[in-house]
Amino acid sequence: QVQLVESGGGLVQAGGSLRLSCAASGRTFSSYYMGWFRQAPGKEREFVAAIRWIDAGTYYADSVKGRFFISRDNAKNTVFLQMNSLKPEDTAVYYCAADPQGSYRYPTSYRSWGQGTQVTVSS
Questions:
Q1: Which 3-state string (H, E, C) describes the chain?
Q2: CB contact at 8 A, 49 and 58
Q3: For 30-53, what is the mean pLDDT?
Q4: Please, what's the b/e burial string for 77-115 (b: 16 or more CB within 10 A of its CB; e: otherwise)?
Q5: Which residue from 20, 33, 75, 89 has the fewest beta carbons nearer than 10 Å?
């Protein structure tokens, strides 16, 4: 299975920026998309962004559109999430995911997950 290793989380003030990285290794069953999700305490895991591998097409949740940007480095097999204009409501554990078997928007579709990295935005 694909192994996903995340980095880049931390504490930032509102309005600041963070860049998350997710390095993938191993074999994938479906390489059409990789995604980012987030989960706050007591809430369901929610879609943040996804990238289509064949052409780097990008997809975003309305809540982050215009602020967050997903990209990839094909040579390094790494996906990034650039987060700008961060808000306290962005505070969550952020997960990268790979090998969706269904829609890229739903966490239940993904077969592989990173360990999660905490993002905390202070007001």
A1: CCEEEEECCEEEECCCCEEEEEEEECCCCCCCEEEEEEECCCCCCEEEEEEECCCCEEEECCCCCCCEEEEEECCCCEEEEEECCCCHHHCEEEEEEEEECCCCCCHHHEEEECCCEEEEEEC
A2: yes
A3: 92
A4: ebbbbebeebeeebbbbbbbbbbbeeebeebebbebbbe
A5: 75
